[in-house]
Design brief:
By secondary structure, the protein is mainly alpha-helical. It has one domain. It is built from 5 helices and 2 strands, in the order ββααααα. Strands 1-2 form a two-stranded antiparallel ribbon. The protein is globular, with a radius of gyration of 17 Å. It starts with a strand and ends with a helix.
């Protein structure tokens, strides 16, 4: 569930949320399910996403992404793109223009390869929104 709470001037709490589809973890046992088999890039993406968005640790997330991208240079373009978009978002929020330019260049190079892959549709939108 993704949600937030607003308190109106009278002190009433208004909870707004939406159910989000949870993917099976490739790193951790959750709800009695063992981690699914996966590739190093998918594992890096899940870990970095959890660190950046769930644990508020963008520095470690950035490090995980940078290492994964450096060691898996030609593997899984759709997951590489997802990692680049996450890394671009971290750079946008915490690091600045130089790292963003590097991630933008890498992301644009992958756009042609991943443009028709449904798994990355949201990431493509995010990529363009971050760069605006």
């Amino acid at each position: 569930m993704r949600q937030f709470v607003i308190v109106d001037p009278s002190g009433n709490y208004i909870r707004i949320g939406e159910k989000i589809e949870k993917e099976r973890s490739v790193l951790f046992e959750e709800d009695g399910q063992k981690p699914g088999k996966s590739t190093p890039l998918r594992k890096a993406y899940e870990l970095a996403n959890r660190l950046a968005n769930g644990k508020d640790d963008p520095e470690t997330a950035a490090s995980v992404i940078d290492e994964a991208l450096a060691s898996n240079t030609n593997a899984e373009p759709e997951i590489r793109f997802k990692l680049i978009v996450l890394r671009l978002d971290i750079a946008n929020r915490f690091e600045g223009v130089e790292k963003m330019k590097i991630m933008e260049k890498e992301g644009r190079a992958l756009l042609e390869l991943v443009g028709n892959v449904p798994e990355v549709n949201e990431d493509i939108q995010s990529f363009h929104q971050i760069l605006v």
